[in-house]
Write a structure and sequence with these properties.
Number of strands: 0
Order of helices and strands: HHHHH
Strand content: under 5%
Number of helices: 5
Shape: globular
Helix content: over 70%
Length: 116
């Protein structure tokens, strides 16, 4: 189990710094598929893990002058409210419904990126 979790973390770190994604798009599906985490636990665990990954990536990008702090705040501060609402909503939805919703979101995003 430890090796799988470390591999999931490595993959999440690569994808999050390459594309600015990691938590819901990479970590949650991998925790569910490879580590047999329940969806609710996978989502919560990914939030804790992505904090570390995002901090490391942001520091390295900031050292290169590529972080726009004002824009990051404009996205990040409202995202705190969204995280509070999302956590509340997530606790009211079944694990299977949450998994289906995530899969649907990923399909929509994939189609949008291909066609957009």
């Amino acid at each position: 189990m430890t090796a799988r979790l470390a591999l999931i973390g490595l993959v999440a770190g690569v994808f999050s710094t390459l594309f600015g994604v990691g938590g819901g798009i990479v970590v949650v599906p991998l925790l569910v598929a490879l580590a047999a985490f329940p969806t609710h636990t996978a989502a919560a665990t990914s939030l804790g893990a992505i904090l570390v990954t995002a901090t490391a990536g942001a520091v390295l990008y900031a050292a290169r002058g590529e972080v726009r702090p004002w824009y990051a705040a404009l996205v990040g501060i409202p995202a705190v409210g969204g995280a509070l609402l999302g956590t509340n909503l997530q606790q009211r939805v079944s694990g299977s419904a949450l998994t289906l919703a995530l899969a649907g979101l990923l399909v929509v995003i994939g189609v949008w990126l291909i066609l957009g």
